[in-house]
């Protein structure tokens, strides 16, 4: 019960922060305001999906990610979480499809965490050249990501 409340609280805080930042233009039309609300709802479901996955509640994670996608088809974070969920459930085929969809979604190629997870998946599934290519062309990684990239490059040897 407390874990569920913590997950819900985290999602609500993410929603509050994103809505505070997202709506700074007072001239937003009614239609675009509704679109923003739908996107924010999808973001909350995607955040809940990741929180559930971190708690190893894969079915709940998958359900929340699917809710996010129902609201915002192509939601990169929801697709990324579905890939990780499928991987946790041992479904490499679904993981591959979701990684590809997430990577091809808007901003996917620039998402360093997605790139790292996808590269690890490819290397672990004997697609070393493709995995290395994702690692070698990562966009401006943070120092933390740079260290993870180097570790994965060491693991992902041809």
From TrEMBL:
It holds the Pfam family TPR_8. TPR repeats lie at residues 42-75. InterPro entries: TPR-like_helical_dom_sf (IPR011990), TPR_rpt (IPR019734). Keywords: Signal, TPR repeat. PROSITE patterns: PROKAR_LIPOPROTEIN, TPR. Residues 1-22 form the signal peptide. It comes from the Bacteria. This is Uncharacterized protein. It comes from Candidatus Glomeribacter gigasporarum BEG34. The lineage of its organism: Bacteria, Pseudomonadati, Pseudomonadota, Betaproteobacteria, Burkholderiales.
